[in-house]
């Protein structure tokens, strides 16, 4: 039987009520780890700000407005003060269906000067194939609450394009050195995660123009291998750098075994050879502790949380949470708080949000922003409760 890390659910907790005392990762031979939950009172106030149709990602502009991708292929611009929602034209054509469509949106580190944004999306291939792609473009805003993209150029693609519409990943992040990181999931094809002739099931590191940095761990191999920083991943849907520059990423496991990993240079995280979950058809997958040559997760969840969206908080509105991670939960309908201790991590708290949470972002003022999943999804702003 699989070992499990059981993090207690909040049950019927109110929207503003958290669950304390979550569990640590089951790893390094631990048979199981469990935790009980104790309710805390009103850790934040939740305000509904706007509605979107199948939103997937968001990012704040320097002027405080918000870019939001909608899966079917729209890029929206929200003026938070006026609640006006405009649209950005010139977006790439997306292959919409299943888990595919518009993905992440990210500003260039020097956006204030160059206006460049990055977009990830599912792209149609030949026949019944498709794959994730990343493009960059110049964003120009107009005076009517919208704008347009120009000089759009695709700088990266998943290789090869395959059938199906699952497990694109395509989360984006920049590090402090201006390198672009892309999570490339294994498209529900399993074995490509271990195949260095493919960039599926990999963490990818590029220069901001899509070229390959000479210091990547597999650069000398050339081809798509040169793009790869780490391998053996399943479906990475959240990336965040901590204050020390370490990259953390969470990924959905198979039937059980969601993971939070510390991403290390050239490391292999084992999928599909090992996992703390099993295949959906019932076939067992050996646990991480049976193959110590593969990097094991710092936190593992079974039952799963279905993680989506991820920040490491650095704002001032919640000073007690500075340096903590926040992960959205889809099937768990939760917001999960992670505490870090150097290169170790543990779930510290879980908040029952009552809806699937697709995306998490930190606002310019230090508020925490969430996007619900699906149609008629709410944009939520979390702020501290009033002081007594």
From TrEMBL:
Residues 1-25 form the signal peptide. InterPro entries: 6-blade_b-propeller_TolB-like, Glc/Sorbosone_DH, Quinoprot_gluc/sorb_DH_b-prop. Keywords: Signal. It comes from the Bacteria. Residues 52-381 form the Glucose/Sorbosone dehydrogenase domain. Pfam families: GSDH. This is Glucose/arabinose dehydrogenase. The lineage of its organism: Bacteria, Pseudomonadati, Pseudomonadota, Gammaproteobacteria, Lysobacterales.
């Amino acid at each position: 039987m699989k070992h499990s890390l059981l993090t207690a659910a909040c049950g019927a907790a109110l929207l503003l009520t958290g669950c304390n005392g979550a569990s640590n990762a089951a790893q390094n031979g631990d048979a199981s780890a469990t935790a009980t939950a104790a309710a805390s009172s009103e850790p934040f106030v939740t305000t509904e700000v706007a509605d979107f149709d199948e939103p997937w990602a968001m990012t704040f502009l320097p002027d405080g407005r918000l870019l939001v991708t909608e899966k079917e292929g729209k890029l929206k611009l929200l003026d938070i003060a006026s609640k006006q929602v405009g649209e950005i034209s010139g977006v790439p054509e997306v292959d919409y269906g299943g888990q595919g469509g518009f993905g992440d949106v990210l500003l260039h580190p020097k956006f204030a000067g160059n206006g460049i944004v990055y977009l990830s999306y599912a792209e149609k291939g030949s026949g019944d194939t498709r794959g994730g792609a990343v493009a960059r473009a110049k964003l120009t805003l107009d005076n009517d609450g919208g704008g347009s993209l120009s000089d759009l150029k695709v700088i990266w693609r998943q290789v090869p394009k395959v059938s199906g519409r699952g497990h694109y990943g395509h989360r984006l992040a920049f590090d402090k050195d201006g390198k672009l990181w892309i999570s490339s999931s294994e498209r529900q094809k399993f074995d490509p995660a271990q195949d260095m002739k493919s960039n599926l099931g990999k963490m990818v590191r590029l220069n901001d123009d899509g070229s390959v940095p000479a210091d990547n761990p597999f650069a000398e191999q050339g081809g798509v291998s040169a793009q790869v920083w780490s391998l053996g991943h399943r479906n990475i849907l959240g990336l965040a750098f901590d204050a020390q520059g370490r990259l953390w990423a969470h990924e959905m496991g198979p039937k059980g075994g969601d993971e939070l990993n510390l991403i290390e240079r050239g490391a292999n995280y084992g999928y599909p050879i090992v996992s703390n979950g099993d295949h959906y058809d019932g076939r067992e997958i050996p646990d991480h502790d049976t193959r110590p040559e593969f990097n094991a997760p710092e936190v593992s969840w079974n039952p799963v949380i279905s993680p989506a969206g991820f920040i490491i908080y650095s704002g001032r509105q919640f000073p007690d949470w500075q340096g903590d991670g926040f992960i959205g939960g889809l099937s768990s309908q939760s917001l999960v708080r992670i505490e870090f201790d150097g290169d170790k991590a543990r779930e510290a708290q879980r908040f029952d949000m009552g809806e699937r949470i697709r995306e998490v972002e930190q606002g310019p003022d230090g508020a925490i922003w969430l996007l619900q999943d699906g149609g008629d999804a709410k944009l939520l702003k979390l702020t501290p409760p009033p002081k007594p």
